[in-house]
Structure formats: C-alpha cells, structure tokens
Records
---
Amino acid sequence: MKAHVAVLGGDGIGPEVVAEGLRVLRAVAGTYGHEISLTELPFGGVAIDSHGNPLPPETLRVCLQADAVLLGAIGGPQWSAPTAKVRPEQGLLKLRKELGVYANLRPVKLQPALVNASTLKPEVLEGVDLVFVRELTGGIYFGEKTRTDDRATDLNVYTVREIERIARTAFGAVRTRVASVDKANVLETSRLWRATVNRVHAEEFPDVELEHILVDNAAMQLVAAPTRFDVILTDNMFGDILSDEAAMLTGSIGMLPSASLGAPDAPGMFEPVHGSAPDIAGQGIANPLAMFLSAAMLLRHGLGFQDEAAALESAVDRALDDGLRTHDLGGKATTAEATRAVLGHLR
C-alpha cells in the first residue's frame, strides 16, 4: 500500500526524535511491503525564522493533502518573549483547527519494566492502563483574547456540538468506564459540559459506566489511585495539564504518545506529548520512544495498519525488557542507541 505522511520536525529535540521516527517508519514499511512517502516541512519556531510564519501556507497545504501528519515538538525561549507578536504555538493551534482534529487520544500505560522509573510506589502503579480523550479545538485556547496594560482576558467557550462529539469519542473507545472531568461547581462551561455528557451517555451509551469528577480531585486521584481510571474525558485545558501529570505514571514524559483525530477521511496528527526540551537539544540524548509509539498510533489510526502498529509497540516493549534506558529513565542510552535497540526487535 502507498501512503503519504507530512513530517514536521519543529524545534528543539523535535527534529532529532523525528529523524529516528522516520528510520523506524521506513523499517516497518520495508518489512511489510508498504511505500510510505515522507515530506519534511518547516513548522514552528524554525518556520518563524525562515518564513515569518509558524505555519507557512505550503506546509498547511501539504498537511491537508497528506494521509497523516507526524510532528516532533515546537517552541523555545527565543520565541517566547511576552511581547512576541508571533509564536510557534499559534501555528500549532491553527493547524489543529484547519485539520479539524478535535479528539486528542493520549494513552498512559505502564511498561512493567519501568515500574521503578516512576517516583510513585510500585504497588500504586501496578495495572495502570488508561487513555485521555481530550477535546482539542475548543475551549479557552481558542477563545477570544484581549490584553491591555492592566487587564487580560481569555474567553472559554464550548458548544453543545463540540461536547457531544468528544463525548461520543470517549464512550466509543471500546473500554468499560469513562470519568468525565470538569469544574461544574464553579464554571458555567463545565455545567454545560456535564449536562451534555449525561445526555449523550443516557441516549447513546447507557451500558458504559460514567462518573463525573472535579478537576482538582482528578489531579489528586491520578497519583493516589491511578488504576481507578480507564477513559478520562476532558476539555482542552484540563486535558493538557492532567495528561502531563499522568506522564509520571510511566516514568517519564518521554514515554507518552498522542493521536489527534477528526473526520474519518481527514488526516490525523501524531506527536509525542513531550515538548521541545531546548535544554538537551543537540546532545543526542533525547528519548525517542514516545515518537516511536506516536508512529505506531499513526500506523494504526492514520493508515489503518493494525499489525504493523502492534509490531512496533512490541519492539519498544521488548527493548525495554532487555534493559534499554535513556537518560530520562535513569539510564545512559543515547537517542541513536535507543533507535537501534528498537530496530533490532523489528527484524
């Protein structure tokens, strides 16, 4: 089968982990007889420097025409001044909106080999296997923003339609329990969120267990009793924060992949949850495993290659079982060494 993937290396360690991800994708394609064409494009801070725009028109055009988009990471201190008029994150938000990727899936599954890499006790972590379903194109990140010398506002807006479709994604995730996170004791948007989730549940998914949990309690329960969760349904900002917290359940944020999905016939976007980590960029020590697992999600959700995705995930598991540990996991393996370890289990 032929497929086309738009590749956005971005900033910081983004290009480093993307380069290793492409090595792995090419290896999978070769093993299974697929032809995957890869088009690398400027995006993020580097695109601001070269084009004055974090999402150049040609980058957007190619992404919209691709079968899937693979992203590294964006951002860095040189583009983050409070007075900056153009930021890498503006390009990311626009790309999400243009692609229509409203559902962000972030699986959090502890690899048994990494049980001691987390700061939490092993008995708390045993059996952790959950997934965040985060609404991605609404809420406070996309609301109207104002700023004067002494006042700033960010408008948090949700529509019933936006809540309905992300609720359906969560209930349809082929799991047993959904915990819907909100702040309904304070926020009107959360009260609409809770009422809409309740209605979709009652009318369409009555056999799925549903609970509502306030965001502050959810933050506590994620580290106190993470195995109580199966599917966690959140709005945009709450999901952004909570899923980063949940990264420590796996030992490192360098282990978390994500998939951002929209309409079935539209390209999805796949990226590791970690940021651009400018403090270690160029040192060759970034953990590429979240990129590999994101590539597996691309194979499964973006291209429909179920066996290929499972093979790549298995290769990562076996490399960890064999003792692979990057610097963030308490080991000494370099980025390249981690890639070689995973490739060795693909053959």
---
Amino acid sequence: MKRLLIIPALLIAICSIVACGGDEDAAVQPTNPFSSTEDNPGNDKPAQPADTTDTSTAKKVVQRKAGFDPCFFNFGAAWQAAHEDEVNYKGLDYVAVWLGDNDWYNEFEKRMVEMCVNIKATPMIYAYVIAEFGKDQGLVDCDMKDEEHPNTLCNAGANIIRAYFADSILYRYEQYASGMRDQLKVFLEQDPDTFETIWLIEPDYYQYSESASQQKAEFDGDAQEGGGIPDAELGFYFSQIVGVIKKYLPAAKIAIDISPWISDWKGISQAAWYANFDMSLVDYASTSGGGTFAGGEKVRAGNKATWKEIYEATGKPILADAGYDRGGAGTGHAQIWDNVANINARAAEYVVGVMQMDASLDYPSIVESIRPQLQVNYPWCAEQGAK
C-alpha cells in the first residue's frame, strides 16, 4: 500500500507503453500551497512428491471484480459533456463527476450513473458542495483571487460553513444521495443498498480549518474572516456528511481529501490533521483534483508530502488525479500516468487508482495495453492470495 500478477499466456505478447517524461523533473519553483494547479526464476531442486495437503483453506487467486477493485490498480476518467458515448469509457474501472452546484440531483449526473451501470464501471463523485455553495454566494477558488474577486474560499469559506452547513450544505448532500438512490432502484433496477459508489468528500476541505487559516496568513496574509473552523469541528461536520450519504447509499465508499501543502508548514502534520476525523468511516484518501506527480515519491512536485507519508498518516489506499489547471481548466491527457514504470512505482507506494480529467478518447485501449504489465502487491489484499 509483493504479489505477482498472474497473466494468461495469451496476453503476454503485449507491447510496452512508451515512457512519457513531461517536465515534472525540472527544477520546481515555490508554489501557492492553496492552488489547485499542478511520475520467478526456475530452481534446480529435485522434484518433490505431489502435495496432498487439503487446499480447502488455501489462498485463492483473486479474480478482478467489475468496476473499481482495490486489489488491483484502477483507471478512471472524468465524465465529459463533450463526449458522453459509452465507447469512450467502456473498459475503465470508474467514471467521475463533480457534484455540488445545484440543489437537486440533475440529468447530467443521472446520465453518468446510467452509463456506469451499462458498462459496469463504478461512479465516483467529487462532492464539492461547500465550495460550490460558496460560489453561489459570490466566492471564488483561492487561486482565482483578483481585484474583481477579493472574496475567496480561503478568506470567507469558513463563514459559509458557519452560516449554511445544516440547512443548505447537508440539504444538497441529501438531495444528491436520495436522488441517486431513487434512480438506481426505480429506473436502473439496481439494489441501492449494495450498489457501490465512491464519494470524494469536499476537495480542499483543509482550507476551511483554523490550521489552514494560520498557514495561509503566514504565506500571504489572507486568512479566514473570523478565523477558520476548529480542526476537530471539521471532523464532526465530515462525519455528518458521511452519515447523510450512507443513509441512502449504504454501500458507498468514502474518500477523504489530501492537502499536500500541510507538510510544508511547521504548525501541523498530516497525521495530526487526520487525527481530527473518524477514520473508520473512510475507505480511501484522495488527491481530489489538481495535478499529481506520477514520476516520483512526492504527491506534488512543489510540496513536501510523499505518497508514503499520506498512507502512513491515513492507513488508506490512495486515489490520484491526473489533474487540471486553475479554475478547472483542462490540461489534456496526462501521459505521464500512462507510463508503466511510474504506475508500478506509485502502486508500491499505495496508490490504487488514477483519474484522468481530460482523458484521451482512446484511453480504454491505452489501459488495455497497460494492465498486463502491472505488478501490484497491496497489503490490504494480502490475505486473499497472489494475483
């Protein structure tokens, strides 16, 4: 977070993926810590008598399940209005959509979930509700601040939570989760009590905290008005959000956000931040958008946090993002995350999947050629036997 991946003989003759370097290894300039921008030999022992051991309790080879499977490395793509055809996603393990900018569960998300059912992919929800509600009140992302937009989620987001959490923010979560339940049960003939989804709770959640407010004040003087939300209180709000989702979708998997810049500040550690949360509610840790560093041990090249550090602090498998630029602008398909050596190295550091924000239309074919070359040995699957 080493087991050999057993590959059928008919799949061995697969060409290697061309390594894609990009410019991630160039010298890194200091970055705004609150910006969303951004790689068995044979032996000669004598033959032994046939093993007559009862194998009824022996470890079995793990078969990959349809959709997202944490015992294997997973590949996902963001749901795009420009290309909704199933052929652009079939063969991927999950499809992701950003949710939060409406008071209801809308048709765009419904079409994505329906397609996921059809192609047996897992729906992944970037639950960006607090931020989107804040934008409805005139706020902008922290890295979009300018003279015309002085009020950001980094200086007014905490007050949004104070004023609107119970009657507006939780309300939106309830609308989304209940709406998805109804769609699954009534229109898609799926059991909503067992149907798996993955919910990435509040990207950049740390930015609303008192620790983040102090860190931001030291960085550029732009702190939360009235102070940030106490760190432990944000843990309580997180549990309430999870409770609403699980009320309607009991099989939902929950991912907690990763803020790599926490490791850049002396005032708090990754472990201390996650200690504010009931981690028994959490299944994954997620970079929740932005760019991540496929080619090395750091989550992002401009911050100190490493993949291993995040796993040690959370104890959870990691979901990585291929990313996008300021304001959600696309950056194109991140080929560095198609490099087999990079993926194997990150899998050894507990990364269990990557989501391409702007996936190439032939991404399913790319993934098909990558899979047979991967070797993963996740500790949370050790008891299930070698793959």
